[in-house]
Amino acid sequence: MENENAPEGKLVTAFKSGKWYKWVGPPKRKPNWNDRGKMDFILDGKPHRCREGAENWASFYDSPDPSFWWSWDSDIANFRKVPAPLLPCPFCGSEHVDTISGNIFIGCWVSCAECTAIGPTKSTPKRARKAWNAALRPSKETPQDD
């Protein structure tokens, strides 16, 4: 039986470049973290894309210093591998978008709750999310899973 209170995403045993990770641990800085708070960006509960990763070491694109490798040691247990976040709707800009999973005959797609736009129908939720994120948007960077 699955634990309903378990954090979303896959357990992390090693960081990999280009993948997305989310901190699910305590929301406050640990005493042994750097005193200037440069690691605090990870505590926001949002997905962060790994720039470079190896075992329990990682650098993140949105870090105050993206070229710096952080050692997460035992704190790696507080990370989960998650899919790339969905970008806002390419038509109305709303962030109220979600993946809809049909069945093997219907497929999966992303839809907007504001303007009811529907993205391309794909065979899996992952492919539907990727197609939605690939839609052209004015001056937006497209997050991709490598």
Describe the overall structure.
The protein has 146 residues and is mostly beta strands. Helix content is 7%, strand content 23%. The chain is built from one helix and eight strands, in the order E-E-E-E-E-E-E-E-H. Strand 7 and strand 8 form a beta hairpin.
Query: What's the rounded overall pLDDT mean?
Result: 82
Characterize the overall form.
Answer: elongated
Helical content (DSSP H or I, runs of 4+): under 10%
The helix/strand class is mainly beta
- Contiguous low-pLDDT stretches (5 residues minimum) are 1-5
Reading the helices and strands in chain order gives EEEEEEEEH
N-C termini distance: 31 Å
- Percent of residues in beta strands? 15-25%
Distinct helical segment count: 1
- Physical arrangement of strands within the biggest beta sheet: 1-6-2-3-4-5
Radius of gyration: 17 Å
Short description:
The protein contains one helix and eight strands.
Keywords for this entry:
disordered N terminus; 1 helix; 6-stranded antiparallel sheet; single chain; elongated; two-stranded antiparallel ribbon; 146 residues; mainly beta
